[in-house]
Design a protein that fits this description.
The chain has 414 residues and is α/β, with parallel strands linked by helices. 19% of the residues lie in helices and 19% in strands. The protein has a single domain (35-388), classed as Metallo-dependent phosphatases (Purple Acid Phosphatase, chain A, domain 2, 4-Layer Sandwich), CATH 3.60.21. Residues 1-17 form the signal peptide.
Length: 414
């Protein structure tokens, strides 16, 4: 097993240190700040792996996109989120053309715009390819005033969708108040580099982990926020590709009652899979350890309750990472729940029933760093309803029924 050098994390901000990043750099234009409802709740709907734009030249490709729009509409009819998160693989980039690879964004966000909803995105490995890039998707998103997606780490190697969003009390009319909740968004990259080919005329691969520069930004920005507001603020995080810790937790065994959800993608595909510790990606290594700094950060930043991922379409469970795991060097300083969503789009592999994970934050439960979560399926059914609290992992819940979608017009690549 190959591992990179461990990073020493420091969470006490120096008063004399000049900030490298501006903690007030969270301008959202005319949208206004995200706020809790007057009843003290804030709900998030997470759509994973929509995979729009597959095989537009075949009948089944556009039909999949029509079905995916239907899923979004069905979920939003049943739920009332204050924010929609599009958590990676919005588009199947390898099927896109340079001239129109990002136009699918308009189709994705149509149901949100119709309802006056606001959204924030992370980008996944299929959002990066020869004819598409995170920056191009972001530019398309910004045509819509409802988008809160932004780029706070202006480093080309860092990917695009690295930023945070504060959520304020309902009585706060501007960002002069201390936030009640912070949402972190990370770009796990992957896929291929935009408009680049090697000497063999093949696409050039891109690293598939959260870059070290983003980890530094996360740690320092969190320190600055703690210093600015004088408290630890509860937070949630979103990234498309799961960490290696999820891979090891899965090997430890997913209990269908303690960690309800489907577990069909076993083993799952974590960040840095197939890379070597020296940066080679030639098929000679299983895992390079490049996500170790990111794992150290998410498990050490106080107040981070959960990290939500997609990528593995056949996994929908949450698992509390609260101990040093076999074959790992990172021991979490704070418990953090590592969660998968539900495959939301009809594009991409697998025929598990489509749906979207919901997260409900209430001010009363946030006082104990707890949130509730469940999955709303396209059928209208709710599965996997759990409370991510101090006893999660010991509490018992009903097992999740592994329902499948029947779609004769769809192409299943499984």
């Amino acid at each position: 097993m190959f591992f990179t050098t461990l990073v020493i994390l420091t969470f006490v901000a120096s008063i004399d240190a000049k900030p490298l990043f501006n903690v007030n750099n969270n301008s959202i234009g005319s949208l206004g700040p995200l706020t809790f409802k007057r009843d003290g709740t804030f709900q998030i709907s997470i759509f994973e792996d929509l995979h729009f734009g597959e095989n537009a030249w075949d009948q089944w490709g556009p039909q999949q996109d029509i079905n995916s729009v239907k899923v979004i509409n069905e979920i939003l009819e049943a739920e009332s989120p204050g924010l929609v998160v599009l958590n990676g693989d919005l588009i199947t980039g390898e099927n896109g053309f340079l001239e129109n690879s990002t136009v699918y964004i308009d189709q994705i966000v149509g149901p949100l715009v119709d309802r006056g909803l606001t959204w924030a995105s992370t980008y996944g490995n299929h959002d990066y390819d020869f004819n598409i890039s995170g920056s191009a998707i972001l530019a398309r998103e910004k045509r819509w005033s409802n988008s809160r997606t932004t780029q706070m780490v202006p480093n080309e190697e860092a990917g695009t969708s690295n930023y945070y969003l504060p959520v304020y009390d309902s009585g706060c009319s501007d960002n002069s108040c201390a936030p009640e909740l912070i949402l972190w968004f990370f770009d796990s990259r992957g896929g291929f580099r935009y408009q680049q080919k090697d000497e063999s005329n093949k696409r050039v691969g891109q690293p598939d982990w959260v870059d070290f520069s983003v980890v530094n930004w996360f740690i320092q920005t969190n320190n600055e926020l703690v210093g600015k507001y004088g408290k630890i603020t509860p937070s949630l995080a979103f990234v498309h590709i799961p960490t290696y810790a999820s891979y090891i937790l899965q090997k430890e065994g997913v209990d269908p009652h303690a960690e309800p959800g489907i577990n069909d993608d076993n083993p799952l595909a974590p960040q840095a899979q197939g890379w070597c510790s020296d940066g080679r990606n030639d098929g000679t290594c299983d895992y390079g350890g490049q996500d170790i700094p990111f794992m150290q950060a998410i498990s050490a930043v106080p107040g981070l309750m959960a990290l939500f991922s997609g990528h593995d379409h056949g996994n929908t469970w949450c698992y509390k990472w609260d101990r040093l795991l076999p074959n790992m060097t990172v021991a979490p300083l704070n418990d953090v729940n590592l969660c998968f969503g539900q495959h939301s789009g009809y594009g991409g592999y697998g025929n598990w029933e489509r749906g979207a994970r919901q997260v409900l934050a209430t001010k009363s439960k946030l006082a104990n760093f707890e949130v509730d979560t469940w999955i709303r399926l396209e059928s209208g059914n709710v599965v996997g309803s759990v409370s991510l609290n101090s006893t999660y992992g010991r509490d018992l819940y009903p097992a999740t029924n592994n329902s499948k979608t029947h779609c004769p017009t769809c192409h299943y690549d499984s």
